[in-house]
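Late entry, evening session. Most of the bench is empty. Finally got around to the prediction I had been postponing all week. Sequence below, unchanged from the version circulated by S.P.
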Amino acid sequence: MAVKLYTTPTCGFCTQIKRYLREKRVPFTEYDVSRDLRRADEMMKKSGQAGVPVIDINGKVLVGFDKDKLERSLR
């Protein structure tokens, strides 16, 4: 399973998602879009938004931290 997480350092929901994924032992790759403009552009193309967090799970894109949607997508 490939999980990409687009975040910024000041995003509280980003921190919550990272904590949740670590607790569930789900490996993920994090991209700080405040420092990586290429990844920021990639995130915007995938999600149609500039807001974070954005999670890409095997090509399925979730915006924000909705625990129920996240759990369903990880199954």
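Two things to note before I forget:
The chain has a mean pLDDT of 95.
The chain has one domain: 3-74.
Will write this up properly tomorrow.
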